[in-house]
TrEMBL record:
Key word Iron present: no
Name assigned to this protein: Cof subfamily of IIB subfamily of haloacid dehalogenase superfamily/HAD-superfamily hydrolase, subfamily IIB
NCBIfam families attached to this UniProt entry: Cof-subfamily, HAD-SF-IIB
UniProt xrefs under InterPro entries: Cof (IPR000150), HAD-like_sf (IPR036412), HAD-SF_hydro_IIB (IPR006379), HAD_sf (IPR023214)
Alphabetized Pfam families for the sequence: Hydrolase_3
Keywords recorded for this protein, A-Z: Hydrolase
GO CC annotations on file: cytosol
Coiled coil: none
GO function term, MF aspect, one: magnesium ion binding
PROSITE patterns membership: COF_2
Amino acid sequence: MTILTDSSVAGIDDQRNENHKLMIALDVDGTLVDHDGHMSPGVREAARAVVADGHDVLIATGRSLNATLPVIEQIGLDRGYAVCCNGGVTLRLDPSLEAGYEIIHKATFDPAPALRALRDRLPSAKYALEDEAGNFLSTERFQDASFGVEAVGVDFQTMLEATAVRVVVFSSENTPEEFSEAIRQIGLAGVTYSVGWTAWLDIAAAGVTKASALEQLRHRLGTHRRHTLAVGDGRNDIEMLGWAGRGVAMGQAPEEVLAAADEVTASVYDDGAALVLRGLL
């Protein structure tokens, strides 16, 4: 595994294709922005420069659509694609469209089996669900910046009857280790899930990950796998880092994420993403 430094040159033979164009997938939280949601000037400038250089830059995030759009705007991306909800929603960006984007793919699933299993094991946890219309339903008072809209409080039965794009579970009463062990014991068949930094769980449809959505876009763009680059820091980035021709983990990433990557850059607080992106210019 390569450790990137300020003097590292991102220049192996497969770094650029004959058109000097790469498909670059960038995670948001912990990669482009820190855990307070702040994007440093260095990261913003490097991302904008790579966009201006003509590469196919894509946001690939666990955030929902409305929480992703401000990041797209910050890096100057108005054409191309973005992956939200850990692969559950794919956008095509086009300034000629009224909203500036359109949803070209949405992967939905029946959340009831997973919700019932989780509620039995984690009765005090908070639950939120993004439905197929983009609304967020939640139990208790559960709100998060990654939702992008205000969650509407509903009873658990209403959540069971919804069609979901994304389900989020958070427990303030369990350590991350206890929470992960509970999820492991439950099994959660028929869905794809990832555990976050805290006692946080994100669930998508079976087989849906950032990597699965990016692979569809790679075919649409006609990009060879060796001309793909991904940068991320979370467990929901593991498949994406393995998918990319060059997978780069942020320096603060957990061990299993570091192990999935080809290279490791600096942490988000040391502008690790900017270090990678500047090496492409």
